[in-house]
Amino acid sequence: MFLSLPRLGIIRGVKLKKSAHTVYRAQYHIDWITHTERFWKMVNKPLITIGFSSHRIEVISFARRLMKNHDVIIIEEAPNPRFMNMLNRKVSINEYLSEENLEFPEFSRHMYELLREFYLMGKKILQIEPYMEQLTYIYNMFSEGEEPLDVLKMPEMREVYEAERKATGALLHFYESSMGNSFPKVIEAVKKFARADAERFRLRDKMRAEAIAEILPKDKLVYVEAGAVHTYLKKALRQILGKRWQIKSEFLLEPVVKKLTGEKQVIAPGDLLTAHYILCRRDNEEFETLQAARALIYIQILEKEEMTPSRAEKTPHIKDEIRAIEIANKFTLAQCEELYRKIRFRDLHQALEIVQNYISSSSSH
Asked: What's the pTM value of the predicted model, to 2 decimals?
């Protein structure tokens, strides 16, 4: 997560005291200059730091460490006219949340508290997510009685509508396929959705990069919040900005993941498949089929509800994700099919028990 440059300290108010062993000790207060700031000063270019993470409460403390060293913070949300009133305390966070349909409300609550703190420190906070902004506009059109043809007549909305329609259609096809008994059809449905989702991610990241590029201030440190799968955003920004800006990627939970796995990040099978399509890599039928099959197992044994960190467990979600990924990655295609048929209509705890018993049974033979 952190840059490889050494951390430097500015020593203030040094007082030297001679010990009985004639060893001098410095009693001082250190103001750390972070890696990010040091790197920016060395290259003398404005810096964009993209912080990749999931929307989980446990990420907040890691985001704080990066955000605090930046002048501008861009979050992954469509603009809301009441956002600034929430930041400056004219609207309470609870009131603001009550009118939002958020997938992870507790994460948002904690994030808004952090953003309020930074806003009062003088940092500029921006909501930039043009894809979701246009999608919200389209939904509002439909709620007012407009038809799809009305949307298609609007060039600025057409691309978003088509991408969303295709992805939603592929998702519905997956749900329909999963009700049947043909495992190969379910696998093909997973791949079809992953391809459509990849197209949607590319469009979202491209639109967001364009919108961010339009508002970038000169000589500022800019932090950009991004979901873990939005890795195309960096490439899109680089294509627009060229070498005028330094662009750094940070995986917020890297310190935790590296300690647990030795890797910089862990990627779930479904996300790995989607990333494969986002990057337009050449077809690899064996790889794609296996990742699709493992994704079916992974999603059944993953905790979906928001978990709150505690003193005993500070990063519950990433540890649960690592556990589910390591289990899913054990299985061959044939084993995935066998297990999927046993767990597809089970709840989390039932599915996990079946999978663990299957592993124990397999290892004993």
From this structure: 0.85
Residues of the chain with pLDDT under 50: 1-33, 40, 42
Does a structural domain hold residue 282?
A: yes
Q: Enter the DSSP assignment of 209.
A: H
Number of domains in the chain: 1
| Residue 88 domain flag | no
| Residue among 138, 117, 6, 100 at smallest CA distance from 60 | 117
For the chain, how long is the longest CA-to-CA vector? Answer: 86
The pLDDT of residue 219: 84
Question: pLDDT of 209-264, one tens digit each?
Answer: 999 999 999 889 999 999 999 999 999 999 999 988 999 999 999 999 999 999 99
In a domain, 343, yes or no: yes
**49 occurs within a structural domain:** no
User: CA 194 to CA 205: how far, in whole Å?
Assistant: 16
Q: Return d(Cα 89, Cα 82) in angstroms, integer.
A: 11
Beta pairing, strands 72-75 & 8-18? unpaired
Q: Vertex 33, ends 28 and 238: CA angle to 5°?
A: 175
Rounded to the nearest 10°, the torsion over CA 217, 102, 179, 329 is 60
Question: What is the distance between the alpha carbons of residues 112 and 61, in angstroms, rounded to a whole number?
Answer: 13
Q: What does the pLDDT look like over 98-122, one tens digit per residue?
A: 988 888 999 999 999 999 999 999 9
* Bridging pattern class, strands 221-227 and 72-75: parallel
Domain that holds residue 275: 266-365
